[in-house]
Amino acid sequence: MKISGFTITRNAVKYGYPLIESIQSILPVCDEFVVNVGDSQDNTLQLVESIRDPKIRIIKNRWDMTMGKEVLSFQTNLALKECKGDWAFYLQSDEVIHEADLGRLVGCMQKYYGDDRVDALRFQWMHFYGSYFRYRIDYGWFQKQDRIIRNNGQIQSCEDAWGFKRKDDQSLRRQKTNCFLYHYGWVHSLDVMAQRRINARQIGFAGSSAGKEQPEFAYGDLNRFPVYFGSHPKVMSERISGHPLSQADLKFIQKKFWWHPLRIAKIRYKTYKRIKQAILDQ
């Protein structure tokens, strides 16, 4: 059984994506890792080259931004076509896997390796927001996602590359991994988030194009969101320790929830109680 990791990236430095951490989080279980690097306004290509691992294979492409958000799935499929493994393990450049889950994930791939009835393996999506110790589970934030697919040429990335579908339009047949997909795309400084919002508007994401440009960005009161008491992937340690808002929030959490059993045990856990958007907007 061979495993291909793959991702796409563009302007990863400019927008603060944890690209290196993302790749390194699953590189130990991959036989190869394909990185599709788009034409960037920063040192993204040099950043990928700095990993210096023989498993990494870089392809370069110029992104046609007139395609709108579908440019993301188009570029993802270009990377997928380069994968040679039996399974293709996809991570976006702001997604990271916990090292404690790697053994389980390899076990899942081995279990379903010969079962053609399984197209994909599904994760629980953990969207961190504002702080590395807060996450969103309100309506509108998808909580499950497929990131490992059978590399048989019958599955492709779709829309804005948020997920996958079968080319014959049949339902994707999937199995749960019961592992977390750590999404860090919403834990940046306010100025970076403002620039990312402008970029999303230019690409054509829903909800980003209406009205005049408002570069200001604010996370609001973080107490609206559930607390994450568990551990993060080790590759994220430096980013987390160097994030002022998260460190201030952590001190608040440790003081307020000193008694909480999940904090004491550092259990990786996500509540399944969805929060209504109306409550968050108050």
Written account of the structure:
The protein is α/β, with parallel strands linked by helices. The protein has 9 helices and 11 strands. The protein has helices spanning 19-26, 44-49, 70-81, 102-111, 190-203, 237-241, 244-256, 261-265, 277-280, and strands at 3-9, 32-38, 56-61, 87-90, 95-96, 120-129, 131-136, 144-150, 155-158, 163-166, 174-186. Strands 1, 2, 3, 4, 5, 6, 7, 8 and 11 form a 9-stranded mixed sheet that branches. The longest helix has 14 residues, at 190-203. It is globular, with a radius of gyration of 19 Å. The N and C termini lie far apart (51 Å). The model is unreliable at 208-212 (pLDDT under 50).
Query: Based on DSSP secondary structure assignment, what is the total number of beta strands?
Result: 11
Low-confidence stretches: 208-212
The SSE order reads: EHEHEHEEHEEEEEEHHHHH
Report how far apart the termini are.
Answer: 51 Å
Share in helix: 25-40%
Tell me the β content. 15-25%
* Mean of residue pLDDT values: 93
Gyration radius (Cα, Å) is: 19 Å
Furnish the topology, listing elements before pairings.
Elements: E1 3-9, H1 19-26, E2 32-38, H2 44-49, E3 56-61, H3 70-81, E4 87-90, E5 95-96, H4 102-111, E6 120-129, E7 131-136, E8 144-150, E9 155-158, E10 163-166, E11 174-186, H5 190-203, H6 237-241, H7 244-256, H8 261-265, H9 277-280
Parallel strand pairs: 1-2, 1-4, 2-3, 6-11
Antiparallel strand pairs: 4-8, 5-11, 6-7, 6-8, 9-10
